[in-house]
Each structure stands twice: as C-alpha cells, then as structure tokens.
Amino acid sequence: MAADAAAAAGAPAITLAHRHVFGLKADVKNNIHYAEETQLIYPAGTNAILWLADQKQQKFFQGNEGAEGITCLAVNATKRYLAVAEKCYEGAIVTIFDLVTTKKRRTLSWSESDAPEFVCVAFSADNKYLLTQTGRSPSEKHDWTLIYWAWDKARYMASIKVSNAYNAPIRECSFNPTDSTIVCVIGDGIFKFMQLKDGFKTLPVQPAKLQSFMCHCWLSDDKMLVCCENGDLLLFDNAGEYRTVLPTSPSEPRSATCAISFSKGFVIGGDDGYIRVYEKSDDPKEVYRNTKSIQIEGAAVGAGVRNLALSPSEELLAVSTSTAQLYQLSLLGQDLLKAEEAPVFEPVLTPFHTGAILGMDVCTRKPLVVTCGVDKSVRVWNYVEKTCELCKFFNEEAYSVAFHPSGFHLIIGFSDKLRLMNLLMEDMRTYKDIPIKQCRECRFSNGGQYFAAVSTNAIQVYKTYTCEPIETLRGHNNKVRSVAWTADDSMLVSTGADGAVYEYSVLSEGRRVGNDFVLKGTSFSSVIVYTDPATGGNTMYVVGSDKMLREVCGGQAQNVVQANTTLGQIVLSNSAKSLFAAVAEPDAPAPLRCYKFPLDGYYNEFSCHSAPATRIRITFDDYYLFSCGEDGCLFVFDVKKKDRVVSKRDKENALQPADEILVTRTFLDDKQSQLSELERQVDELSNQQEFQLRHRDGYHKEEMVELEEKYTAEIDQERQKFDLLREEKNDAEMEAEENIKSLAERHAQETQALEGKFQNKMMQEVGRYQKLAAERESIHRSWEGEHQQLMGKHGRQVQEMQREFEEKQSGDKNSIQRIMEEKRLTEDVHNETMRQLEQDTDREIEELKEDKEARLKEEKNDKVRLRGQAGIHKRNHEELKRQMQRKEEELRQYQEEARKKQDKIEILQKERDHNVKEIRQRDTTIGDKEGKIYDLKKQNQELEKFKFVLDYKIKELKAEVDPKNDSIAEMKKQIQAMDGDLEDYHRKNTQLQVNIVQLQNKQKSLQEDIVSQRKKMTDCQTVIKRFKTDLHECVQFIQEPKQLKDSLTALYKKYVPNGVKKQELDSDIQREYNRQRDYLEKSVESLKKKLLKDSDVHRQDNTRILQENVSLIREINDLRREIDYLKRERQQQKLHVSKLKGANKGGSQSFPSAGSQDQATLTKEMEGNKATIEELRRKIEDQMSLRESVVRAGSASPEN
Could you tell me what percent of the chain has a pLDDT over 90? Predict the structure, then answer.
C-alpha cells in the first residue's frame, strides 16, 4: 500500500483523452459495421472506433493492456454488443463491449490454447453464443481451432480443430441463423458444417469440388452463398447441401473476397475494386442476376474491397478498402439497382493516408496539422473541425514536412529537393526549390524567421522570407535524425544515428557551444531542449535505441530514466510540466507515455498506434497532442491538466486562431468569372422555371376540367346504379316480409298442436299420480305398525344397558378418587418449581431490559442527528435536481427542434418523389378509366333495355302489393314498439360503453405519465452522475480555498450558465386558458344535468330489479319448503318398503312394485325441482351482477 501511495503521489498531473483519429486499420477481418443508421464501427490503431456521424464525434473502445493489436471484429444481430479480437502472445483474447454504455461486458480467453490470434469471430442469431476461430499456434497443438462460447457467462462449451492434413488456413466461421447449434467454417480447400451435440460433430456435407473458399454469407431465403478464389459463386441450402454454381458469377480471380446479404439479394466485393450487386431472378436457372457493377475510387492503382457493411434500413452501403480508405454510398433518393449512372462513393469522414506517415508538424496560429506519407500525399487537417482541409499528391515520396507558425508556408522534403510552398485556399504552390536531397528532418524556428533542414550528416539553416543560407552546421558522423530550436531561436540542438548530441549557436556563425554529448554504439532518434527561465541554461533530453530517456546538461548525462522499450519521439509541453514520449518498438503497438517533468521515472501510458510511432507534436497552448505512425493513423488527444483553471479574463485575452487565407490574383479572377457565369445561369434557369410553371399550370387546369367532367359523368352513372339497387332492395324486403308472415302462421299452428298434445299427456300423468297416492297410503299404514314394534324392543334394550352402565360407573368412581389424590400431590411439587423459575426469569429480564433501554436511547440520539443531516442533504439534492431538470428540458427542446426540422426536410424530399410517382400513376389510371368508360357505356345501353322490361314487371307487382299494405302497417306498429324497447337497451349499453371508454382513457393517460416520469428519472440520474463526477473533482481542492472557489464557479457556470429566468405568462395563452375553462365549466354543468336524469332512470331500474328479486326469493323459499316435505315423505316410504320386504313374499308382490314406481316418480320430480331451483338461482345471480354494474356505472359517472 505504501508503494502504491508513493506511485500515486509521483504520477503526472496531466492525462490524455482520445479526441479524434484520422485513419483505418485495413488488415482487420470484418473491420466495418453499422451500429445504427448514422453510427459506424471500424478499427484504428489498437482501438475500435464508434463514429457518430450526426454528432461528428468518435467513441473509443481501447484494447487490453499487453495485446498486440486487433485482428477481427463482430457485431451481434441487435447491434448492441461489439466483439473485438486481439492478438496476444500469451493467448488470443476477445473483449465484448456494450455499444450503448461503451463498457466492457466480458473478456474471453481459453487458457488451454497458445494460439496468439483469432482470425474470425461471429455472434449467433439469438445473441447468446460466440464463435472464435484461432490461427496458427507456436506449439502446433491448437492450430485452426474453432471454439464455441456462451459469452454472457464467459463459459467455454466446445472446441475442435477444423483444418485439414495440410494445415490449410481457415478464413471465416459463422452460425446457422435458424439453428445456433450448427456452425459453418470455410478456408483454403475446407468447407465444413458441424453441430454441437456433446461436443462438435461434423455433418456429412460437401461441395461438388473442394477449392479455395474466400468468404460466405447467409441469404434471406434460407440459402448460403460461398465465394471462391476463382470467382465462382456457389449456392447451398440452409443445411449445407450443395445446389448450384450461379451462372452470373464474375469468374475472375479474387473478384469475390467479401459478401453481404440484403432483402433483395446480396452484394460482393473483390480485389479488382468492383462492387457487384445481385438480385433475385424470376428465371429458375439464373436464380440471381447481376444488376449493377460499381468501381470504387483508386481501383486502377490496386485498391481492393476488403469489407462491406449495410445500414439497418439498407439505405447506406459502407466499404473499406485495402488502401485503408472508408467509403459510403447513400441509397436515399436514388435506386442503386436501377440507376443508369454509377453512384459516387464518398469518404465516411475524410480520405486517410495509405501506408506509413513519415512527417508531421502543427501550426501555431491556426488549428491545422500537416502530414506526409509514403502514399506521396501531403495533407492538411483541421483538428477542431475534424476535417481534411487540403490534400495534394506528388510524383515522389515526401520524407518530412514543417509548418510555419503563421500557417501560410510549408517546407516539404522530397527525394531530390526541398520545396518551400505557400498554403493557398485550395492548393499548395511551390515558390522556392532548395537542392537538398532526401531531407528527412526539417523544422521552422519558433518565431518562423529561420528554418533548418537536414542533409545526411549536415544541417543547413536558412532565412525563411529570403531563403538565404545562414550557415551549415557540421559535426555528426552519421545521419542526423532530429533537430530542435531553443525558445529564443538562438540555439539549435541535434542528434543522430552516431549517438552524438550537439548544441549550435545560430547567432555565432553556427559554432558548437561545447556542451557535446556522445554515446558510442547508440543511435538516437529524437532530441528536445528546455531552457531554464531562472538560470538560462539549456537542458537536452534524448531517446534512442538503448531504451533510455536521458537528461543531458553541460555535456554530461545528469539523469537517466529506464524506459524498458524503445522510445522513438519525445515532446515537452510548453508549460514544462509534462514530457510525452511515443514508443517505436519494431513490429509492436506504439502507446504514448506521459512523464512528469522534471523527470522522476513515473509515467502514464495510453493506447494509440498498432505500429511504431514516427512523429509526435503538441500545440503551443498545451491543449492538444498529436501522434502519427507507420499504421497510417493520425491521433488527436485532449491534454487534461488537473490544476488547469481558466478564468473568464484569460479566455477573453487568449489569442483566437487566425482565419486568414492566401489566395492568388488569378484565383480571385477565376472565381469572379465563375460567379458571374453562375449568376447568369441562375437567371436563365429562373426564367425557364417560371415559363415551365406557367405552362404546367395551364396544362393542369385543362386536365382538371376534363377530370371534373369525367367524374361528374361517373357520379351520375353511379347514382343511377344506386337507384336501381335501392329498388331491388325494396323488392327483397317485401319478399322477406311475406316469408316472415307465412312462418309466423305456421309457427302458430304448430304451437296449437303442441298445446293439445301436452294437455292429453297431463291428464294421463294426473291419473297415474292418484294411483300412486293410494299405494303410498297403504304402505304408510304398514310402516306405522312395524315402527311401534321396533320402539318397544328398543325400550327394553335401553333399560338393560342403563343397569350395566350404573354398575360400571360405581367401580370407576373409586379409581377416579385415587387418581385425583396423586394429581394433587404432583401439582404442589410443580407449583413450587414454577415459582422458583419465575423469580430467576424476572431477575434476568430486568437486567436485559435495562441494557436494551440504554442502547435504544443511544440509537435514538444517533437517529435524530442523522435525520437532521439527511434533511440538509436532501434539500441540497432536491435543489440541484430541479436545476438539472430545467437544463435538461431546455437541451431536450433544442434537440427536438433540430430533429423536427431534419424530419421535415426528409418528409418533403419523400413527398416530392411520391408526387412524381403519383403523376405517372395517374396518367396510367386515366388511360384505364377511359377504357372502362367505353365499356360502361355499352353496358348502360344493355341496362336501358333491361330497365324497360323491369318497369313493366314493377307495375304488375305494385297492383299485387296494395292488398298486403294493411298487414304490413300492422306489423310495422309491432316493430316500432320493439324498436322502442331495443333503443332503450341500446341507450343503456351506450352509456355503459362511454363509462368504460372514459376509464380506459384515464388508465392509458396514467400509464403514459408513468413512462414519461420514468424517462425523466433516468435522464436526471444521468445528470446527477455527471454532476457527482464534477463535484468530486471540485472536492480535490478542498484544502485550497481559491481553487475551490474557482472550481465551484466553473461548476455553477457549467450547470447554470444563464441563471434561472422566470417565464412570464403570455396574454394570448391566458385568454385561451380562460375560454377553455368556461367551456369546460359549461360542459360539466350539462353533464351533471344528464347525470341526474340517468340516475333517476337507474334508480327506477334498481327498484324494479329489487322487486323482481324479492318475488324470486319468495318463490325459492316456497320451493325449499316443498323439497323438505318431499324429502321427509321419501324417507318414510323407504322405511315402509324395508318393513314390507320382511313380510310374506307371495302376498306382497304388488307392494314393492308400487313402491319402486312411486320412488322413481318422486326422483324425477325432485330432479325437475332441482333444475328449476338452479335456473332461478342463475337468474338471481344475473340480476345481482346487472345491479352491481349499474351501481358502478352510476358511481363512476359523478367522478367523471
């Protein structure tokens, strides 16, 4: 713990935060993915980047410490998680990031494998599993091993070696989208399907011929596409069965190295620089046809397509190339599959360097950085706007570059000469060539009046504005690799591959001062100089191949810091508080180090390049740090100081970046002539547009007149059809009424017949009942006699049992007295024992009570104190919460306005396209309508003939209808009466439905309020978390009141920049509010009146229902009494039957038969009564439920 504390105390007070990176790591498998429509994922250096196009920001997913770089990427189907595979010599690792929170979810590594890298990673369709494919391993035991993971639990599930006997490489692996237990791997002569069942089992599927397979993808129609190295496109089904070779395959070597599917087909890209779009074909032999072939920029110089990505809406296609470029094709507003002209690919951010960046320098007066690289280009970047301001390609490679402090001039070292160039608005123009060959280091002085250029082992110093040579500085025996100016530009220090560090006086004809330092056998790569403002002495810091950071003063090494790695470049902050170093270890990643200055050996390390760094620079105000390397990436870091407090006065007095530019007279004249020509063209186009609009308006008016006439005629025809159909409807109604009448008559006849039949049946049942009643009386008399005999016998048995009981009772009394005596003695002993135990227990309870009361008193005092503190914190928290809510609401309003404007623009563009399409469709519709009109005219003539015949029939039917009108009128009266009842029920149902709808709306509004409140709570928690972080940083200055006050002031300005303004209520809003309040009050009064009326109606209904319930309850009670009487009679009959069974069999044959008939009849009658009772109970329950619903509706109406 002491060592950690010491390290923390010695750690630098400056940290670095990734701001932006210009570049792409092209050798990563699947190095481009879409997270959302405007969010793109790609690798740069040792980081994975999430580019937010709408915000023009980058989020960094940093690699693991000790990793050697990214090898492949994968994004799951829901675009929520990112898998980053990294090379590591101890064993390859995969890190799963959450794209929403940008935090690590899991880190996967298989300890049993020594393979240093994964060549491919894939998520399953259900997002639960992950496939990783290893490469070659040093021990050759785990070469090309496929590993199956349950990644959310970080659990290894299965593995298998998938290569062949020749140890051929594997290129890709993937899951079957419909079955996560089936996986596919392809490679050089390898095509395998495997299923996870207690380990991997290889499925018996093979293509027609094994060859070198480059890539594959799963299509939307349950098929799989496999691309071969010779250009053939093979089609397989979902289970891996070979189908066919597409006849439209490009059939050119390495023309299909990557593929991606979309809803209509798939897209492939190859090393020839072409992107080919395939769409489903109606021809079963062709299956897919090539609808478009597009060549990307740079294909002529060997730029091949490496990876493809399609946005979720399939409106954007992203392409990464072998030249480390990132392009994007917008499909919005044009149809890629039908466009006649080839669409233009646009860079996603800006064009990047291809290959290593050799030189870099930063401007003092402008937010610009210049770089040059092996791609023969010189690029000027704006690190504030995050854009490439200018890019120019030359015929030869540029080795070094320097930026003048003013931002108007550049020095570029080429293989044959050194060029001085003016930085113009849209070009770089040479104004002086100096014959210095292969100048690999050049630097402007801090004031810009001199510049130094290295020529092998000599340094030449020139005046900037006259280009006059001042002196040539000599002394090195080998190549000079770095030079640096002192702060006052009076001295120049240099170092080189000879291990020497020299200090020259520029003002004294270039003489060496004498503070030379030479270390034989070491090759130095970078030197900086620091002038102590107190003593004026110069201290130099050099790094080189000896893995040391040396402090040289007076020709002696004063301090040596062990770096344990090769440092390639160093730079000192202008505030002289930190020293930054870039690692340049060959074939290894190059992080940046931040050393505390003066040097004490402690440093912080930040992930950066995937290859050795070549240059490092810092801005004059120490706000930004820049680094470039052999991986072609330019990193921009924010330099954050813990003790940096910028006051308002410092901000106002700070020098703003210059916005002046250099232009030539010819350029201005050309622009002026172009402007005049464009203005003339605009005038011509305006006149042409006005003429076209007038012509189009006239044409549209004529079309409208024609359409009105045509539609009027169609309306007349439709009206005639309607009249005809209405007459047919009336005829059908009359026919239906006649049928109803005949059915009613037949029903009445059938009812009368059934009534007669029922009367006959009832007479028969009455006679049968009288007979059964006589039989029951005879059985009852015989049962009474038998009952008297049984009662006499029972009395005698009771007397005998009573006598025996009295004898036994006298014996038991003696035993009870003896037992009671023993019980009394035992109770005395027990009572004495209980008394002693109670005394002991009471004493212990009193002691515990006193102890607990004391502790309770202390806890109450603590509780009161903590409650007071909590109240204070709660009030502070509520105040901050209210302030943050107001700020969050303002921010949300601004964002909502911007989003609405963007949505409106998109809607208008879509409406324009829709209107053009609709005009075409209407032209086609007009032609179809004219054909239909001609057909309808013919049909109309035929209908006229048919109408004449129907008119004659109608006259005849009218004569027959008159006698039936009387009966129809009578039936209509009955229908009206029934309609009145029906309307009454409808009115009640409507009222109940209105009440239900009101309650549902109320519930829905409450649910929406809950969702909005939850969202607000989440936003507030985010702001609170951010505020806590800022507050924690403020607390760090608790011992320094001034800095604490400044930090609190900055915190207040950050969260309450404009103060709290009271909003005045608009008069129009007040008037509108009063008007709506009056309207709502009137509505409430009318609803109350309506409620009173409805309540009276419901009260009457309730009274009627209660009366019906009372009558039904009376009827139920009567039925229950009748049932009880019948049950008693049935029991008596059963006893009578049992008596008769013991009598004479021959003489009593008729009685049992009569008893059985009587019993069956009673059973049927009881079952009928039970059914009646159940029916009455059901009616009562229905009435009660109806009453409750009416009461609830009545109670809900006053609330509403």
Answer: 33
